[in-house]
Amino acid sequence: MALHFELVTPERLVRSEEVYMVTVPGAEGDFGVLEGHSPMISTLREGELAIYASQGAAPERIALDGGVAEVNENGLTILAEAIGQ
Fold first, then answer.
1. What are the tens digits of pLDDT across the range 36-53?
2. 39, 33 in Cβ contact below 8 A?
3. pTM value?
């Protein structure tokens, strides 16, 4: 079982893949999303996404400059204002 994850900026779709978990820098604090997470929407602060490809894997980190996260039955979508390179 896997979580469908998409990362989108105003310019393009950056990623669309199946992952184990993503830790997100929410405006109220970091939160983790696994498959089956309850639906929610959160604004994001400047910070880092931590993307875990599989359970126990080292995370890949991507810097964000804010945005919005939506979790629904289809997975997690991050609409980022911008991402660091």
1. 999 999 999 999 999 999
2. no
3. 0.93
